[in-house]
Amino acid sequence: MKNTENQMLVIFGASGDLTARKLVPALFNLYLDKQLPENFIVLGASRTNMTDAEFRNKVVLESSYLQEKFKDLKEDHKATFANRFFYEDLGGDYDTDYYTLKKRIEALNDAEGTEGNIMYYLSTPPTLYETIAKNLAAAGLNTQNNGWKRMIVEKPFGYDLETAKKLNKGLQNYFKESQIYRIDHYLGKETVQNLLVTRFANSIFEPLWNRNYINHVEITNAESVGVEKRGGYYDSSGALRDMFQNHLLQIVSLIVMEPPIGDHPEEIRNEKVKALKSLRIMKDDKTIHDHTIRAQYMGSNIDGKSIKGYREEDGVAKDSLTETYAAIKFFVDNWRWKDVPFYVRTAKRMPTKVTEVVIHFKSPHHQIFQDSGMQSKDNKLIIRIQPDEGILVKFGVKVPGQGFKVERANLDFYYSSLAETHVMEAYERLLLDAMQGDATLYARADEVEAAWEFVNPILDYWKNGTDVRMYGYASGVWGPVNADELIDGIGMWRNPGPNLTDDPGFCVLC
Ligand SMILES: NC(=O)C1=CN([C@@H]2O[C@H](COP(=O)(O)OP(=O)(O)OC[C@H]3O[C@@H](n4cnc5c(N)ncnc54)[C@H](OP(=O)(O)O)[C@@H]3O)[C@@H](O)[C@H]2O)C=CC1
Ligand SMILES: O=C1O[C@H](COP(=O)(O)O)[C@@H](O)[C@H](O)[C@H]1O
After folding, report:
1. Whose CA is nearest to atom 12 of ligand 2?
2. Cα(123) to centroid(ligand 2), Å
3. 110-162: per-residue pLDDT in tens?
4. Residue 393: is it exposed, middle or buried by C-beta count within 10 angstroms (0-12/13-18/19+)?
5. 197 lies in the same domain as 145
6. Domain tally for the chain?
7. Which of 113, 136, 154 is the last residue of a domain?
8. Would 238 be classed as within a structural domain?
9. pLDDT in tens, 294-305
10. pLDDT at 377 over 60
11. Is residue 21 domain-shared with residue 99, that is, in the same domain?
12. Are 146 and 37 in contact (CB under 8 A)?
């Protein structure tokens, strides 16, 4: 087990939703699992006027998120945990002299023995990230001569390529790249990390992991919910920025990358950058027109319940052209993947919540069993990222009896069968990694920029191009029918069911 040094976590924007809903429950789990160092404290900092006691009540003692998650826990556990929380009112502005904050940090450091090690967590609107970094540096709170200083930065990391570059440069003016941890919570998911193990710790998959054996790759990220209370944020973002540019391209990079030399964070991140840089950028409008589909969910009635359309959601413009569905076809320009199409889609208000990767294998060169009733392209490796986490291999078996009738069978593995293992939640795992100085599961500046390089032309075309379509789909269906055209000629979308082995998208010709 890695060493977690004594340290202080300073959260900017600590009065907000993320702190209460994700960060504190993750820290509480780490505390219960005895993963926090002996001297560990949290200092919340924001503009809201609160005392230490009020902050403790808000995020720990009276937090509905902790209440819900840790129902059976004795109150004294929470009380001991809450004593580690402190709060500093920034006096109404993040862009101010951090002299008072510095004095508070120094006093707490001396009293609580956190040895000068500080993790800053930027959980404010992104427009404040650079301002906070600048003011920390001005107060000398970025220097590492008396303990390390690190900074976790929340998404969204930029709005497009230009703003992402500007933000990277802005932060790097005050903190070294090695101090900056850009969080992508998908990288904290066990099953996303398992993509690396599946590929590089087995000898049965990697020899097949190339254009000679793989016909196409399909990735689906579906959510059954709509935009919920985040209409305002989402309407200026959309599916491509919200999910595809970050989480899904991170998954793509793990599928596409070459084997790293070892498991050192930089070795892995170097290969991921190379992978992202090898995605073929769609340069002309026609390619983007033909290879992308965007759509919005419409109002519908599901089981007698009426569901709002996207444009009726709070915070969303009545004439909004923001997509809640995006499907993209693309190619990877390198030796391994030449001519293998990738189909990636992400959407809200789908029939179920599921994220999975499907590797579709090619048919054998010669069909021996003509009467098989099954096409060999039915060989699939399905990596279920969530829920029902696991891996499924689909292959043909002989039907008992005369002749050679072939039927499809499943070899399946479920993470839940590893019952003794406590699977850490994404924020828990990522916080612990950063606390230990392990950046493997955090995105590096060049990774983020490479992902934006790919996405930018699509965003530009969707905004300014001619003949750009916005399709509609009823809530609770698998997106617009037009999305089938994207994958036509090669098969059809898998449209996965809630269970790993469910396969409503089954098609004998696929
Ligand atoms: N919530 C979530 O699930 C997720 C959030 N994120 C990202 O994490 C960051 C924090 O998110 P979240 O906690 O939901 O955000 P909130 O809107 O709840 O904001 C966090 C805090 O930022 C402070 N703040 C400073 N300036 C402003 C301003 N102009 N408008 C609103 N708040 C301001 C507020 O504190 P005060 O007024 O006290 O200073 C607020 O409590 C954001 O960058 C978000 O994109 C990323 C993924 C998921
Ligand atoms: O980052 C985001 O992710 C969530 C989906 O996360 P998951 O872990 O539940 O799959 C998404 O709902 C949200 O819009 C997006 O900002």
Report:
1. 223
2. 16
3. 999 999 999 999 999 999 999 999 999 999 999 998 999 999 999 999 999 99
4. middle
5. no
6. 2
7. 154
8. yes
9. 999 999 988 888
10. no
11. yes
12. no
Q: Whose CA is nearest to atom 4 of ligand 2?
A: 243
Q: What is the largest CA-CA distance in the chain?
A: 85
pLDDT at 370 over 90: no
Residue 223 Cβ contacting ligand 2 at under 6 Å: yes
Q: What is the pLDDT of residues 237-275, one digit of tens each?
A: 999 999 999 999 999 999 999 999 998 999 999 999 999
- Residue owning the nearest CA to atom 16 of ligand 1: 16
At 496 the pLDDT is 84
Tell me, in angstroms, the distance from the centre of ligand 2 to residue 18's CA. Answer: 12
470 and 388 within one domain: yes
Decide: residue 481, CB within 10 A, 0-12 exposed, 13-18 middle, 19+ buried: exposed
**Does the beta carbon of 242 sit less than 6 angstroms from any atom of ligand 2?**
yes
3 state SS of 375: coil
409 pLDDT tier (thresholds 50, 70, 90): confident
User: Which atom of ligand 2 is least distant from the CA of 237?
Assistant: 16
Residue with more model confidence, 49 or 507: 49
The one catalytic residue in 216, 247, 291, 360 is 247
- Same domain for 136 and 209, yes or no, is no
Q: In b/e form, how buried is each residue of 142-158, taking b as 16+ CB within 10 angstroms?
A: beeeebebbbbbbbbbb
Please determine, for residue 371, whether its predicted confidence score (pLDDT) is greater than 80: no
Find the ligand nearest to 226 CA.
2
- Concerning whether 247 is annotated as a catalytic residue, the answer is yes
Quote the pTM value: 0.93
Question: Binding site for substrate: which residues?
Answer: 185, 189, 223, 242, 348, 353
Mutate to test the pocket of ligand 1, among 11, 12, 15, 18 (most ligand atoms within 8 A of CB): 18
Q: Which two tokens stand for residue 126?
A: 């992104």
Any idea what the CATH number is for the domain that residue 325 is in? 3.30.360.10
φ, ψ of residue 32 in degrees (nearest 5): -65, -35
Q: Which domain holds residue 26?
A: 7-154
Q: Examine the fold and report which residue of 154, 178, 201 is the final residue of a domain before the chain moves on.
A: 154
CA distance between the termini of the chain = 46
pLDDT at 77 over 90: no
Asked if the interface predicted TM-score (ipTM) of this complex is over 0.90, the answer is: yes
pLDDT at 11 > cutoff 60: yes
State which of 22, 183, 185 you would mutate to test the pocket of ligand 2, scoring each by most atoms of that ligand within 8 A of its C-beta: 185
- Indicate whether 419 pLDDT > 80: no
